[in-house]
């Protein structure tokens, strides 16, 4: 509830600052009353992720709306969701791309990447206490990723946390051939 109030307040501030701005003040080349800049600052502070002018605000808004949703194996609603359903929902709604439903099948759709080559929107895969891929999330930058954790629900975590560092397998970027094959226009 508090999260929704804060988000509504942000939207109201963005709208008011745009509507009532008489002059535009510039700081470091960015307009202070720019709604996208305000949203970037908000998500940077609330989510602990460096969100800048090149970031996909739609991605951060989507994740913010799901933060705290409980984990439910096989779930795909706000009452409960698992990691692959959360990742699939992001790709559907934010990137207008349909990906497969489980983490192993999703991995078959990507060009594997090392941790150093990850960019915002790439996928991160884990082999948690398993020989095969068992977990997936969305990379946000600064070693942070959003995912549906089995113990904490939808959260933002750090790849450098000992737990995730231990089980990290690879990153991945969805191949263009799959984007065309699965995307509905």
From TrEMBL:
Keyword Nucleotidyltransferase among UniProt keywords: no
Signal peptide range in chain numbering: 1-21
Domain of life, per lineage: Bacteria
Keyword Isomerase applies: no
Domain NlpC/P60: start-end pairs: 53-175
Family classification: Belongs to the peptidase C40 family.
Protein known as: Lipoprotein Spr
Organism per entry: Pedobacter zeae
